[in-house]
Amino acid sequence: MTPRRAPAPRSANVVERYSPFQARFFALYFERYFRRHMNALRLTGATRVRNGGAGPLILYANHPGWWDAALYLILARRLFPDRRPFAPMDREMLEKYAFFGRIGAYGVDLEKMSGAADFFRQSALILSRDDSLLWIAAQGRFSDPRERPLGLKPGLAWLCEAAPGAVLAPVAFEYAFWTERSAEAFAAFGEPVPAAELLALDREVRQEDLSRRLAETMDQLARDVVSRDPERFETVLTGRAGVGGVYDAWKSVAAVARGGRWDPAHRKGARPGFEGDR
């Protein structure tokens, strides 16, 4: 009887596990999923981070909802196509959905001392690559964008010591309904800061400085979202506008009968194009 072949052992090294092909596949999948369920993805401040220079990039963000992880993949492909994105993930969830390990997720259990040590070890390994992009949900839990203080996890300040050549930038996420039946997703990128500059501060002051930068980015994004002005944003992805069904079909027929063109968006100009939207 031929013995069963044991499954090939999976590498514990998050960098070796990463598959660019699978990461791109899932980014495209989530873009399609986003288009089906959301109205638009709107950004501010992305240019300053795109031009942040060489070396590893750490994007630390608030964590308002489920969509955040999908935006990690979408924004990495859209804004940083030459970087390899990574993000920590709850260890139990990663064991349940192992494929996430192929697209940059690495398991952590911050409730244990060994889990914290493993997080630091794997993060340092990722940040040893100049082309790495490390997403950090800095609060370590879901939280409302209006919550203050932010309560960032202390490990964030340590990352500066692990990668003194890195650049850090705060990212604020928010979701809101404007004029369409589907929600808008927003991401605001704050001013980048070199890790070497932050190392001049002691760890506690450094943590406070990082928290202040993120809170200011979140506050500015909130003001932009409240304005409901799409001109304040760069729109990188659009979904399906309108009510759909019989209502939109009737309005479309009526528009054609008048010799016009049917636009399902409720607000004119609410869905600007973007040269990268493909």
From TrEMBL:
Signal peptide: none annotated. The keyword Transferase applies. Residues 57-176 form the Phospholipid/glycerol acyltransferase domain. The keyword Acyltransferase applies. SMART domains: PlsC (SM00563). Keywords: Acyltransferase, Transferase. GO terms for molecular function: acyltransferase activity. It comes from the Bacteria. This is 1-acyl-sn-glycerol-3-phosphate acyltransferase.
